User: Which sequence fits this backbone?
């Protein structure tokens, strides 16, 4: 398969030899920057070429990019002029596919740019947030040790009035130990199942019996609980607008396709493995 010309090595040379571009009156897309064998290269061509460069090239100084891109387009134009005969199938088919894709993309961009109706936005918010059940969040601390006997001994000390945070700093083998065992706030699914199950059954201020997980044995203290609140509409406006637009785009694609005169009968009976016949393009 033919490979497209890459961003040519002249960019590296341009870094040290770049020259200022001659001033022009109100330049635009149609502004001609070079002519090769009678074929114009415009500022628009250069803008499109820059936009399609890999990210690392787009970080180069503007002067370097200008010279490098212009050199590339001049070289491509000169090379194209030397081609004789009909363009290979791989070229004409690629151009057709690219044209189809780009124009279809313009239609989708137009749909995405349509303002989102406030009623639709409110309905999406209500469906996703306002009617959802409030969740529960937990603030807990724990002391992690290796054996059940150690955990039982800790529970006994705590029942006799020992300070939980001090014991955690002294005895816990977990990373939260230096912080007094504090785990902060967490919700459903954020802890291993056996740990979460124990916390859910506790009342604020209570200390659990030893709980085993794959990390060892825990003694848990539930500090507080709270109900999770749904975000305000403005906090999730952009997220909801994107969801609505994506839904509208999909509906538009389906409607336009359904309204088109489509005949797929010619595809019936064709062996799908024929798509691998890249040599047909040569």
Assistant:
């Amino acid at each position: 398969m033919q490979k497209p010309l890459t961003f040519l090595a002249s960019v590296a040379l341009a870094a040290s030899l770049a020259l200022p571009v001659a001033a022009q009156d109100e330049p635009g897309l149609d502004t001609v920057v070079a002519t090769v064998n009678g074929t114009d290269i415009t500022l628009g061509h250069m803008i499109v070429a820059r936009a399609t460069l890999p990210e690392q090239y787009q970080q180069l100084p503007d002067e370097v990019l200008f010279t490098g891109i212009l050199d590339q387009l001049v070289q491509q134009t000169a090379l194209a002029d030397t081609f004789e005969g009909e363009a290979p199938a791989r070229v004409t088919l690629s151009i057709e596919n690219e044209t189809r894709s780009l124009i279809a993309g313009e239609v989708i961009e137009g749909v995405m740019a349509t303002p989102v109706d406030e009623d639709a936005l409110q309905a999406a918010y209500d469906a996703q947030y306002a009617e959802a059940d409030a969740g529960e969040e937990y603030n807990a601390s724990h002391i992690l040790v290796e054996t059940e006997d150690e955990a039982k001994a800790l529970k006994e000390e705590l029942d006799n009035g020992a300070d939980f945070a001090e014991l955690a700093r002294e005895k816990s083998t977990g990373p939260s130990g230096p912080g007094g065992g504090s785990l902060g706030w967490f919700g459903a699914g954020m802890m291993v199942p056996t740990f979460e199950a124990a916390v859910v059954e506790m009342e604020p201020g209570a200390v659990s019996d030893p709980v085993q997980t794959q990390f060892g044995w825990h003694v848990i203290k539930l500090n507080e609980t709270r109900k999770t609140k749904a975000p305000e509409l403005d906090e999730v406006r952009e997220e909801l607008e994107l969801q609505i637009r994506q839904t509208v785009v999909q509906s538009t694609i389906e409607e336009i396709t359904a309204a088109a005169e489509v005949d797929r009968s010619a595809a019936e009976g064709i062996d799908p493995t024929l798509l691998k016949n890249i040599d047909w393009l040569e």
